[in-house]
Amino acid sequence: MSAPVSDYRFFNDGASHMHRHFMPRVFELAGDLKPGTRVLDVGCGNGYTCGMFLEKGCEVTGIDLSQSGIEIARKSHPGARFEVLGADDDVLKNLGVEPFDIVVSTEVIEHLYDPRAYVRGVFKALKPGGRFICTTPYHGYWKNLLISLTNGWDKHWTPLWDGGHIKLWSPKTLSFVLEEAGFANFEFRGAGRLPLLWMTMVVSVDKPVT
């Protein structure tokens, strides 16, 4: 996970306005979560998503570059491990652990200057056969056209949001960067609003066994 311009500040342990949209899809794609399933949340923020996996009996680690987010997460979810750390080629070495069964990362990749480094880090963090579940705001032809027709780009992609979205992803571009890193078995879900105007998209990919 590339370094942000500044520390994204978290002030409470609550859900974001997007959790209710993407988390049902995340759990659909996670499949049967057996007790002890090892989960890494990349860009865990205040730990809210980690808490949802803890409730299902998973062994959870969360990493984020936000000191404020990690401090809140440690207080709110003492059953998980949280570290101020980015996802890169050395993530497992830095954590001192074996590869994970599942890596989840929600609404993160659109904030990164170097998404390829982040994807490589996620790939290395997974065991062979492990699954990566990623969410990011959806962009496709019809949604982009509607934003243009309603003159909505200044609001939708405002340059005045410090630490905001700097890369907008479509299924095509997200598939490209994930496949480039070696992922396979793509499954996409839309979440929020009408089909093709989704607020966000959820993708599941697997690290090949061989």
A few lines on this structure:
This is Methyltransferase. The protein is 33% helix and 23% strand.
Describe the protein.
The chain has helices at 19-30, 48-54, 67-76, 91-95, 115-125, 141-149, 153-156, 171-181, and strands spanning 38-42, 59-64, 81-84, 100-106, 126-137, 184-191, 200-206. The chain is built from eight helices and seven strands; from the N terminus they run H-E-H-E-H-E-H-E-H-E-H-H-H-E-E. The chain has a single domain, classed as Vaccinia Virus protein VP39 (Rossmann fold), CATH 3.40.50.
Structural class: alpha/beta
Strand elements, count:
7
Relative helix content: 25-40%
Oligomeric state = single chain
What is the percentage of strand-forming residues?
15-25%
User: Architecture, according to CATH?
Assistant: 3-Layer(aba) Sandwich
What is the averaged pLDDT score? 93
Summary keywords:
single chain; 210 residues; alpha/beta; Rossmann fold; seven-stranded mixed β-sheet; 8 helices; 33% helix; disordered N terminus
Write the layout of secondary structure elements.
Blueprint (H helix, E strand, L loop, with lengths): L18 H12 L7 E5 L5 H7 L4 E6 L2 H10 L4 E4 L6 H5 L4 E7 L8 H11 E12 L3 H9 L3 H4 L14 H11 L2 E8 L8 E7 L4
Parallel strand pairs: 1-2, 1-4, 2-3, 4-5
Antiparallel strand pairs: 5-7, 6-7
Protein name: Methyltransferase
Pfam families: Methyltransf_23
